[in-house]
Give the backbone structure.
Amino acid sequence: MTEIFKSNNKKGVQISSEIIKNNGIVAFPTETIYGLGANGLEPRAIKKIFSAKGRPIDNPLILHISSKDDLYRLAFINKKAKKLIDSFWPGPLTIVLKKKKIVPKEVSAGLKTVAVRMPKHKLTTNLIKKSGVPIAAPSANISGKPSPTNFKAVYEDMNGKVDAIIDGGESRIGIESTVIDMTKKKPVILRPGGTTKEKIENVIGKVDKHPFLLEKKAIDSPESPGMKYKHYSPKARVILVESKDKLPYLIKRYKNFCLVTFQKNIKGDKKTVYVKNIKELSKSLYSVLRECDRLKIRTVIVESPLETGLGLGVINRLKKAADRVI
Ligand code: TXA
Ligand code: MG
């Protein structure tokens, strides 16, 4: 059975931390999206995450910590990584470093590295502190589906499969953390997300983007294990529109579609979602994709944002989800 707790229920966090201590699994909110957590030092607990999500076991997990000092027993730190931590933690930045022995191979999927993040969310911090261990947590969705950014989405995918769900309302950012590999001479962004490339470069200088960030195609490389799998995909067909002048034509041509746009003067036929800026798009993207599936909308046409700032992360998700880019 899955216990449900409201975020303002202090007992809920207490009980959830006990579940984690006892090697159970709990879905919980963070500032990016909802995570599905377990004791990150206990293989038996970690395995439960993989089976609840249907996640391939060669895709490693992020360890979530509640204080910067917790990093030292998990990974080897270098100067640039230290700068990132000082500037962006707590926050939506996941840092990949050489792992220490204490990190089980079930977390790192057999790699020599580990991904660590310190979330900026009071409830999450409390939950980690009370649990007394780093919490291993991927997104709390069934593998391949859009990540959950509200309770309804988590419940849809995880009710009956996890020991508890904590309802923390809408996620503030709405896409996942940025994942950066700090084990290379020149750092590499493996997944763009809540912390922008521009901000990172202000602190540590130039970084590389993984060459497949804005490609649909799946790849198989040991350093970026998550990339070869299908991600962020609703049942609906997603069309990403880069050439805005094609929008009027697409609106005429398609039936049973939802339009996600920055422009107030155009409309979808089944549903229209206006977003004011990239922050709003990031915050609503996954919930809109899920809502369209609930409404059995066949196509979602999304006007592309610019590639700067949070836009890079949003375009990355859209490119992976899209059936067509126009
Ligand atoms: O915002 C987030 O990061 C959320 C919340 C819950 O913290 N978590 C999340 O986890 O998105 P997940 O498992 O859905 O995505 C983690 C990504 C995957 O693409 C995985 O392949 C990559 O991080 N990753 C994890 N460990 C890695 C490692 N050692 N080396 C390279 N990539 C790694
Ligand atoms: Mg995920």
